[in-house]
Amino acid sequence: MEAEIVLKIYAHAHPLKLIDLQVKYEDEEDEEGDDDPITKKEGFGGARCWRCGEEIHMYHRYYYTCSSSCHDFSLHKFCVEIMSRYGKLEELFDKYYQNHLSIEEVGKNTIYHPCHPHLLMCLIPKPILCECSACGKKHKGIFYQCTFCGDFTIHSECAFLPEKLFIQERTDGAFHHTHPLNISYSFPFIDQQAKHNPKCRVCGRDFLDFKKADLWIYKCDKCMYYAHLDCATSRREPFMSIFLSPGAGRTKKNYEDVDHPGLLHLPFLDETYSLPKHYLFFQQSSIDHHHHKVDEYLKHMSHEHPLVLIDVDQTQSKSNTQTSSSLLLLKCHDPMKKTQLLCNGCLKPIMSTMPFYKCPQQSCNDFALHEWCTRLPQEIENHPDHPRHNLYLICSNILGFFFDVFNCAICNLPCNGFAYCCFKCGYYVDVTCGFIPKEITHKSHPNHLLSILQLKGDKYDIQCHMCLMGFYKGELSFHCNMCNIYIHPECALLLSETIRHKYDKHPMNLSYLPIENHKSEYFCEICEEDLNPHQSFYHCKDCAQSVHTACASSILQCETETYSLSCWRNSIHFFLNIKFGGIHKIHSHPHSLSFAQGTVLDGQCSICGHRLQYEMIFKCHECKFAIHFNCCKHLRQI
C-alpha cells in the first residue's frame, strides 16, 4: 500500500485514509484496483500538503489525511505516489527534471480532473499553441496533459471552467435560461440522437459537426438546452461574433416601421386569419375608411346557386326568428365540437364569428365563401415568383385539372380551391400563395426583417429554421440577410400561432424550441408518435401536451386515422388545402362516389390493388368500392 510506504518514510504514528473530493463523479481509483479504501467527502474546507506545502484543492481530487487526531497531517495523492515509487524526491527530480524543479512547483502543475481517469500535468510551463481535447479548438496558453495517454491535452481555461453557470451572466444577457447549465465532459452520438440531434442554442450549429463525441458542452437536460463551451462562456473573440451564424439569442430590431407600411407580422393569431383576409382588410383601410357594404344575397361566378350571407352580428341585431333559427342549425367550423366548414376559395376554416356566404342547397357539399374571398382581385401584377406575366383568378373548372385539383407552384400542396394562374406558362398558385408578401417578420426569428428570396442551385446544405427540412432548386424562401436564416413560405404562412383541440380545453401555442421544465418525453397527442421539440410544434403548457404541426389540421379526423404520413416536409398536413366531400360518378360503378381521404378501413384500391390509406380517394358509401384519385383520373382519360 502506498500509504504504508509513506508512513515508513516519515515515521507517522497513525494510519492514513484516502479522501475523494469529487463525490459526484465515478471513482476511477476503484476501477484501477487501488488497495487503499476511499472516503467520499463533501464541503471540503481546505488543507495543506505536509510534504510540498501547497494547498489541497478540489481539482486535485484525492489526498491522504491522518485517520486519527493529527488534522494537520495531509498529503497530495500525487506526492504520495512519487514517494512510494521513488523513495527520496531528489531521485525523481534527477531522473525527470534536469532544471531541478521543486516539489512545490510539481504540485502546482498537477491536477486530477473528473473528465479523465489519469493524472494531468503541465509539462511545458510556457504558453504554446495546441488543440484542446475539451472544446476541440486550438488555443494558445498553458495546457495540462495526461502522462499515460499522451493524446489528451486540455487548456487551463477549459480545465477550470465552473461546473455550473448561468448563461445570461456569461453572455451579457444576449442568451437566457432559467436553470444553471451543467458542464458535461462528453456528448455521445447516441445521446444526441436520443435528443433529436439538438443544435447549440448560441451559434445554431450541430453538435454532430464535432469530430469526437467526447468534447465538452454545457447543458440543461431537463429543458434540452445545449451549448458549446466557448459559446456558453463568451470566449470567442470578439464576443459579438456569436451572432454571425443563426442562433436563438436576443436580437435587436433591424428595421423601422415607417419604412415598411403594411409589414406582415407572422404567425397569424389563429386559424381564422389568412393572407387574403389580411391583404383585403389592409387595402380597404388604406383606400377608404367607410364601412364596406355587404349584400345579403350574392351570385358568384364560382357557383351555380345564389349564396346567402351569414353574419352573426347583423343577425343578432334583427328580430327575425326564422333567420336566427337557420343560423343555429348551421354547422360552422369548431374543432371543439368536431365540426368542419372550409371556405371553397382559400380553404381556411369558416367560424360563426365571421361573415360568410353559403349555398342553402344541401346537395352542394356545404359550399361557402368568406365574405372577403368574394372580393378577391381578378388580376395580380408582379408576383414575386412569376414577375414576367400577370396572374389571373380562376374560381372553378380549372383547365386541365381533374376535379379542379392542382398543385401549387410555391407550397407544393394539392389544392381544389381558387387559383391564380398564368395561362402562357401553365403556372398555378393557390390564393394564399398568390398574395405572398415580399417581406415579413416572424416570431421564430424576432425583430429581424425576412425578405423573399428565390434559391439558385441545389440548396441541400441549408435548413428551414422552423421545420429543419431542406430546400429544392428554384424554391422561394423567406431569408434573414443578417443571420442567414431561411424559412419555407408554407411554414411561415400556414402555421397559426394557436390552435384548438377537442382533447385539450386550452389553446395550444406554436413553439419553436423545447419547453422549459417539460416533465416527460415528447410525443404527439394525435398520431401518438415521437415528436422532435427542436422543430416547430404545438404545445399546451398547462396540460404538458404536444402535437405535430402536420397533425394539427387533422384534429377533426383523428379518430379515422387519416393523419400519419399525410404531411409535407414533416411540418404541413399534405391535404391542408383540400376540401373533401364532393360527388363523382364513373361509368364502371352504379353508385355515386364521394371524394375523401383514405383510411385503413378503406382497404385496397379496386383498380390497382394498392393501399388507400393516406391518399386522396373516391369511395362508395353503399358498398366497399373505393379507388385512388389518380386511378379515377386515368379512367376518365381512357
TrEMBL record:
The keyword Repeat applies. Residues 500-558 form the Phorbol-ester/DAG-type domain. This is Phorbol-ester/DAG-type domain-containing protein. PANTHER family: CYSTEINE/HISTIDINE-RICH C1 DOMAIN FAMILY PROTEIN, DC1, ZINC FINGER, RING_FYVE_PHD-TYPE-RELATED. One of its GO terms (molecular function) is metal ion binding. Coiled coil: none annotated. It comes from Lactuca saligna (Willowleaf lettuce). Pfam families: C1_2. PROSITE patterns: ZF_DAG_PE_2 (PS50081). Keywords: Metal-binding, Repeat, Zinc.
